[in-house]
Amino acid sequence: MVESIHKPLSPKLQAHEPQHQESQSKLLKNFWYGIEHSANISTKPISLTFMGHDLVLYRGTDGRAIALDGRCVHRGTDLGAGWVEGDCIHCPYHGWKYESDGVCSHIPANQPGVTIPKRAKLQSYQVQEKYGLIWLFWGDLPSEQCPPIPELPEFEQQGWRTIHGDFDWDGHYSRVIANTIDMAHAPFVHASAFGKKESPAVQAYKLESGEWSGSGFITFETKPAYSLKLILGKNPPDGIFRATFYMPNVSRVDLQFGRFQFVLFLVHLPVSDRQTITKWLHIRNFVLTPLVDSFMHRDVVKTFKQDNEAVRIQAGAAPDDLTAEIHAPSDALELAYRKFYNQAVEMGWG
Q1: pLDDT in tens, 210-265
Q2: Where are the beta strands (DSSP E) in the chain?
Q3: Count of other CB atoms within 10 angstroms of residue 137
Q4: Of 19, 9, 26, 11, nearest to 320 (Cα)?
């Protein structure tokens, strides 16, 4: 069972009347969403789908990342197939030119003096680059009044090495986040690797709640798998597993075995109700040589593939109504995420 909650959620949230027909399929507003690795953005535009919204990303002349709606307002053409000149992007179909603020500034087929319609404009989005990731602000409030991007002090810190990658999930991002912070699935989903099916009980853990985050940790008897077998040896120390979420789409997993530690920092891009793409960072403080990177990358993907089988067979997005599913004490961290989600919806951020 959960021993205590460090910081209770609002009384208003606790009195929330459940909506049985709804699920966590709304895209929350007024948060920063990690959406892509910085290394993938260049002067060649790329397309990206963000919970049904088409976006285009590219870099301007000064190297800054630019994010706009991804479809030309003329005929709905994918601007990711277009080209960039300076800070502007051109539609590949009829050559319409859009400035970095989304305003159409040139229609090649127009005769001189023909006015460009005022509605010929794409939505532009505020972006930041942090931890080698592109973060997009999705909201209608000033970003400085909203939750900041989570801290990741280990990134590029001396004594730590970072690798990164992508993983495609067959499920809604609320289920993916729940999977990555879940305390109880490893003995079953990962039984062939590091899970111990003969020891499934989850010890009581303290849930620590921040303003828009939650965290909890447990200790466990280590059953090393993959590359950790070679690193930890025949008599591995007990492990410490800490799981953390940051609203709306970030989770973090910390694993420690004595002096060996690694961090999985995960931003989950909501693509659709049945697809999520995780942009992940794996940060370790051991065996820092680049020669090991491919093995660590392989280990992360193997683990995600096992997790995806569990996510794939779940029933859509997590429900808003906390009574729609049955919960156990080990679910405290996931329940905290759902309560924060409902709190954001109540604030009009849904």
Answers
A1: 999 999 998 877 666 566 656 665 676 678 889 999 999 999 999 888 888 999 99
A2: 31-37, 46-50, 53-59, 65-69, 83-85, 88-90, 97-98, 104-106, 124-125, 127-130, 133-138, 161-169, 208-209, 213-220, 239-246, 250-257, 260-272, 275-284
A3: 19
A4: 19
The answer to whether residue 338 scores a pLDDT higher than 80 is yes
pLDDT for the residue 238: 77
Identify the bridge partners of residue 277 per DSSP, sorted by sequence position. 168, 269
Q: Which of 91, 118, 145 is the last residue of a domain?
A: 145
Q: What residues make up the domain containing 195?
A: 161-349
Interacting residues of 6 by C-beta distance below 8 A, sequence separation 6+: 206, 207, 208, 209
Through-space distance between the first and last CA atoms of the chain, rounded to whole angstroms: 31
**How do residues 135-162 score in pLDDT, each as one tens digit?**
999 999 999 999 999 999 999 899 999 9
When mean pLDDT is compared across 71-85, 104-118, 227-241, the lowest value belongs to: 227-241
Q: How many residues are given for the chain? A: 350
Distance between CA atoms of 105 and 67, rounded to whole angstroms?
Answer: 17
pLDDT confidence tier of residue 13, bands split at 50, 70 and 90: very low
Q: Are 189 and 75 in a shared domain?
A: no
Within a domain: 4: no
How high is the mean pLDDT of the chain? 89
- State whether 140 and 173 are in the same domain: no
The burial of 74, by beta-carbon neighbours within 10 Å (0-12 exposed, 13-18 middle, 19 or more buried), is given as middle
Q: How much is the pLDDT for 231?
A: 66
Please tell me whether residues 105 and 249 are part of one structural domain: no
- How far is Cα 329 from Cα 255, in angstroms, rounded to an integer? 22
- 5 pLDDT tier (thresholds 50, 70, 90): very low
Closest CA to 66 of 49, 51, 86, 81: 86
Q: What are phi and psi of 26, to 5 degrees?
A: -75, 140
Q: Which residues contact 336 (CB under 8 A, 6 or more apart)?
A: 5, 9, 207, 209, 214, 245
The CATH number that applies at residue 54 is: 2.102.10.10
Cis peptide before 248 (omega within 30 of 0): yes
Mention every residue, 6+ apart, whose C-beta is less than 8 A from residue 246.
147, 150, 212, 213, 252
